[in-house]
Design a protein that fits this description.
By secondary structure, the protein is α/β, with parallel strands linked by helices. It has 11 helices and 8 strands.
Length: 304
């Protein structure tokens, strides 16, 4: 028996002997895969649904490993909203333990939103999972969430759709505000270099050129080949700044910044929100925070 099978059996055994009877409570119970998804689900669900999260804030959604508490929570869950497109490699373990009572919703795949392809690394050419980094992508997620909740609680469908409409309007306003803030950055400075190539949708929405050292965080990070390639590119075309992300060690970008004498700025938030007292406690503040970091680091115009 492999270590993986042994690990899964142990988790399942703990769940079976420790969990209360599944669905003892009639409240619809939902789990989101990571904090950004959790916040979007809560916008639509309101108080009618119990919403929890698998990957805590501050943790890397790509590299998470399911814990016994995760498995116990899944025993009493009706719906799992996860991003999909490879963002959560560990979702296969949930698929293996799921039954007919558990609905798994791959939100990015169901969303009516045109995907981009990963631009570099091991998964180059596959769909980029970070659709939520464009408010229009987040709005497409909201539609999927509302339709799923309405299917499970049809008597509250009108309420879910009303909240979804309100959320879409708020996201449209947010997009305009972020664009206005970023418009002050000169066109010659609109290059966004990060560790993970996770800003493609953001770049498309707000007119940047984005590139990462590697493609997604669950491949080998900061390989010698990837670092050397990025170093050559930075020597040929020097951006105004380099950026690091909140869930990725800054060591790789720091090394490049020291080597090239290019300023390093951050953190930018992508795969996780911050804690409640941090600068990215929800989706809106996350995008506004990122816009402020970019505006400052890339020479945005100063308000008169």
């Amino acid at each position: 028996m492999t270590k993986r099978v042994t690990w899964m059996c142990t988790l399942l055994f703990v769940a079976l002997i420790s969990a209360a009877p599944a669905y003892a409570n009639t409240t619809l119970r939902v789990i989101a895969s990571f904090s950004v998804m959790e916040e979007l689900v809560k916008r639509v669900a309101g108080d009618a649904v119990s919403v929890n999260v698998i990957v805590p804030v501050g943790e890397d959604v790509h590299r998470w490993e399911l814990t016994p508490p995760n498995v116990l929570a899944l025993e009493e869950t009706h719906i799992v909203f996860y991003n999909g497109l490879g963002l959560e490699p560990w979702i296969r373990h949930i698929e293996a333990m799921s039954d007919d009572q558990l609905t798994l919703v791959e939100v990015a795949k169901k969303a009516d939103y045109a995907p981009l392809m990963i631009s570099t690394g091991q998964y180059k050419g596959e769909p980029d999972p970070h659709m939520w980094m464009d408010p229009a992508g987040a709005a497409a997620y909201i539609d999927v969430i509302a339709a799923t909740l309405a299917e499970h609680l049809p008597k509250q469908a009108d309420v879910f759709y009303a909240r979804a409409e309100e959320a879409r309007k708020a996201l449209t306003t947010l997009s305009s505000e972020v664009k206005e803030r970023l418009d002050g950055i000169p066109q010659t400075n609109r290059t966004l270099i990060t560790s993970e190539a996770s800003f493609g949708y953001f770049a498309r929405a707000f007119s940047f050129q984005a590139q990462g050292i590697w493609g997604v965080n669950h491949e080998t990070q900061g390989s010698a080949q990837a670092m050397a390639k990025m170093s050559e590119q930075l020597a040929a075309k020097r951006p105004s700044a380099l950026f690091f992300e909140s869930t990725t060690p800054s060591i790789h970008m720091d090394a490049l910044a020291r080597e090239t004498s290019i300023p390093l700025a951050g953190p930018l938030y992508v795969d996780s929100l911050s804690r409640a007292d941090g600068p990215a406690a929800n989706y809106s503040t996350m995008l506004r925070h990122n816009a402020e970091v970019l505006h400052t680091a890339l020479g945005g115009a100063t308000a008169e």
